[in-house]
């Protein structure tokens, strides 16, 4: 019987209110081969429109570069959005720039598997 | 522990660096996952906004291979990965990881762990005074009392070297969240008292990305709810008169045997505590 794969869900923002520039803390996950960022809104002020958060990767947890994947900010309370990532090296995070007048209280999680 | 059991432990390269009691409750080397170590979430009711601000700063633990921009992957002690606890980049920020089980009988306990600690290696500087403290706590409850032994290594205060192991024995006020839930943030940077003895210098090494692993052992007796031993590497501390934070027993917690590790930064830079491995053992027939 083959071994089960490892899995771990890290909650990167627990009820944080994002407005203006926002980012999650760096998360190390070199052991994983795939992940899904989930964003769930607890409260939404204003209209996020087409605003999204961008996945960034890093060689060292200090210097960051856009990975190319984006995930839409949820528009309504309890709306959940997601983005799948793979081949991300050792460190990942999400960054966002919310439009003026927009604020989202979020739960951001990263479901990893590898 | 009989001779055969001891010989088998000494012959196992993963275990021979430990001195466990007769029953190993867990041995987590993080080579195969998080092993039940998780983020400490504060109590809440109705809304996350009811959570104590002390708990809101706590981040998710992770598996780290200790990679730096200059040396690449440092790796852990027993394999590639170690458990990493990271603070926010804000002076005084703390973070915690916890593992929760229950005790089967009021027996002697022994917690052993190998650890290292560093500030984030983002500056081309020694950075030895950037991390304030790291430590561990038990959270225990029997029929009468909730007992929370806390120990920490205060490396730095306000940029000045301290390098003392400390304990905490004073409770903090509880805050009621609703009719069933209360909260208290017991890790605040207050009410810590130095253990008897001299300062203990730990090996920091010479740049932020070089780490050295250290050993520590805490013995605590569940029958008496007292410390019986504490050592870090070659230095042992007299623990007979060292008290723990104690409060009356609380609902729904009987039998609790939680272990948590924490780290705190002294600057606006992330501080990291790494563990590889953690072994909790007890003594009974």
How would you describe what is shown here?
The complex is a heterodimer of chains A (about 110) and B (about 280). By secondary structure, chain A is mostly beta strands. Chain A contains no helices and 9 strands. In chain A, strands 2, 3, 5, 6 and 8 form a 5-stranded antiparallel sheet that branches. In chain A, strands 1-9-4-7 form a 4-stranded antiparallel sheet, with no helix packed on it. Chain A starts with 6 loop residues before the first strand and ends with a strand. The mean pLDDT of chain A is about 95. Chain B is mainly beta and about 280 residues long. In chain B, about 5% of the residues lie in helices and about 45% in strands. The interface between A and B is medium-sized, with 22 and 27 residues.
Please give the structural blueprint:
The complex is a heterodimer of chains A (114) and B (285).
Chain A: E1 7-18, E2 21-23, E3 27-28, E4 34-45, E5 52-58, E6 65-72, E7 80-86, E8 91-97, E9 103-113
Antiparallel strand pairs in A: 1-9, 2-8, 3-8, 4-7, 4-9, 5-6, 5-8
Chain B: H1 3-11, E1 23-28, E2 38-39, H2 53-56, E3 62-64, E4 67-68, E5 72-73, E6 82-86, E7 94-102, E8 108-119, E9 131-141, E10 145-148, E11 150-157, E12 160-168, E13 175-176, E14 182-183, E15 192-194, E16 214-221, E17 226-232, E18 235-237, E19 245-248, E20 256-265, E21 271-282
Antiparallel strand pairs in B: 1-21, 2-7, 3-6, 4-5, 6-21, 7-20, 8-16, 8-21, 9-10, 9-11, 9-20, 10-19, 11-12, 12-15, 13-14, 16-17, 17-18
